[in-house]
Request: fold
Amino acid sequence: MPTPLAPRARARLLRWFRAERRALPWRERRDAYRVWISEAMLQQTRVATVIPYFERFLARFPDVEALAAAREEDVLAHWSGLGYYRRARTLHQAARSIVAELGGVFPSTRTGLLELPGIGPYTAGAIASLAFDAPEALVDGNVERVFARLFALPGALGSSSLKERAWELARELVPRAKGAGEWNEALMELGALVCLPREPRCGLCPWEADCAARALGRAAEFPAPKARKPGLEVELEALLVERSGRILLHQRAAHEGRMALMWELPTRELGSEHLFSAHWPLQAGRVLLREGEELGRLRHTITHHRIQVVLRRGELAAQPRGAGWCWATAGDASGLALTGMTRKALRGRCASPLSRA
DNA sequence: AACTCGGGGCG
DNA sequence: CGCCCAGAGTT
Reply:
């Protein structure tokens, strides 16, 4: 198969990247641990969102041993607000596996990396190439979009056909000897800075003359948009139970699909859909809570649910005891693994902002 | 192959 | 308000 991209074009991308690459915290030093944490956080999450989380996380868990030794709840607390909390759990499990089974040494091959929980095809390629400069390809949303335009590939964004074709091209194009990491990073950076989803800045692009979609005058039309379902409407009721300056929080069960082990205001779902729990959290089968006056409403969106939360004052019918309940001050709350919804509900009510030190 | 999982920022 | 983001795991 002929090389789909001329050597001059390849060199043009690298020249562009060396001139334009952003200074990002995880680019300061390239060890496997830092690459891994940044890649895990960056899954489906914007760079600007990740930066403060990355710095707090690295300060608290500076290496894989520190992460492995931490309690899961502490890891979750440092993830609170980032979303996709399974990432934090698999990160923690993988750290323990690396320390317990691999002597604290990071796998340096794609196949070795794929054995670890939370590391899929993209992240394995990223760690192998960025941290170890192994000749491994990667395809993320940026690369998929760049290739869809550069080669005018058919298929919707995220479709298996486009994704598979993008992986083939990525494997063909990645440097065999050295420089795989820089090449991969340059591709992603081009997607992040120039080959933007809505309005590509073709005038700034090192591949403007090479781009098939541009030649058709339809760069912005590639890739085809993904079909999306409308979010389901959900109405929740959350209770603010206060006692001597503290707020009652409830911890979601470990087996909950969503946001397991995260802390939240006691919550139930109104209406009949029951996409969330329809009842107040119980203790030994007993109802502990009664709802009082309405305090306000807020909107929150999680993946496919559009949620309206009615915030009410709550009263205790019995004394909550044992694990799964806590009385938190504003200060405590900043160190807890709160759900985003609870964080939002408490914002402005807590004396100090919920910034995690 | 289709679904699920958070949350935010921007046009 | 819709769209998309340095995806992975489950069904």
